[in-house]
């Protein structure tokens, strides 16, 4: 399938997802408490089969789900994505016992998963992790340190935790562990953030883990993290595209009926050109997201670069589109509870998490130079 076109079945499925989001997910999201895990919403995602599909489909399907849900209910989109982000390392790298213990419950929406990578001193620089894993595979490890900015913390049931098992080894000294929330020594606290989804801190004081809890191989945690992020980065772009499209839809409706200077707003050339620019950037971002997702599904070796490009373009575009939409709506868009007020708070975070925009630019440049200088003697081609 060409990356730039969806077939009729995919288009219909996206429309069905938007209808489900409006009819069954939006009401549950409205009943939730901002900044807290909405277990009723997650359970409904499980009943609708969306969490199961999250783990059985490819990157393009994941993008279509996230974009479609984000256009109608960002809370549902985020709940779905966080389940995938937290549990994907378990699916891809967990032992049979850990997979059997957790994946069915996560897919049903009965267990909440979280991806615990960032620390107070190590956000986008995953190789700088300081949380210590003391011990060895034979006798087990004790995890000691802090995690911060962790989505679904401290309310998750299962955490994918990245810890340093080899001091001074950089990225090669990190190991990933599946850590149940009820392990002794694991505590946490919520953070009051600009965006309304649940984020918190974790404190690990000698938390016990064993070889059965290792995801992948000891010392292979960086690969686990990057493999997960390469899958989810294009879909962060899809989330952003969904928000941009929601802002554009609202702007089209508003400018077509808002009286201004003897006509309506859309009759003003400056407004029409602004709306055209919003639509242009949104569609360009959408196409790049779809292309990156299709490349992941095809096993393209350039996935890291394409995923970074998709996330960068889409998140920066969404910030622009939502801001422009607020400007065209005027003061009404600043009222608490307005769609654009909500989107304005939601749209800022994706430019930071899963690798800030600056990190994406660094990654893109690194991949470009590596390809340019590839050769038997390192000479530029």
Describe this entry's structure for a reader:
This protein has a four-stranded mixed beta sheet with strand order 1-4-5-8. Strands 2-3-7-6 form a four-stranded antiparallel beta sheet, with no helix packed on it. A two-stranded antiparallel ribbon has the order 9-10. It has helices spanning about 10-30, 40-45, 50-55, 60-70, 75-95, 95-110, 220-255, 270-295, 305-330, 340-345, 355-370, and strands at about 115, 130-135, 140-150, 160-165, 175-180, 185-190, 200-210, 215, 260, 265. Helices cover about 55% and strands about 15% of the residues. The protein is of the alpha+beta class and about 375 residues long.
Topology:
Layout: H1 8-31, H2 39-47, H3 50-56, H4 59-72, H5 74-93, H6 96-108, E1 113-116, E2 132-136, E3 140-151, E4 158-164, E5 174-180, E6 186-190, E7 199-209, E8 214-215, H7 221-257, E9 259-260, E10 263-264, H8 269-297, H9 303-329, H10 339-346, H11 357-372
Parallel strand pairs: 1-4
Antiparallel strand pairs: 2-3, 3-7, 4-5, 5-8, 6-7, 9-10
Helix pairs in contact: 1-2, 1-4, 3-5, 4-5, 4-7, 4-8, 5-6, 5-7, 7-8, 7-9, 8-9, 9-10, 9-11
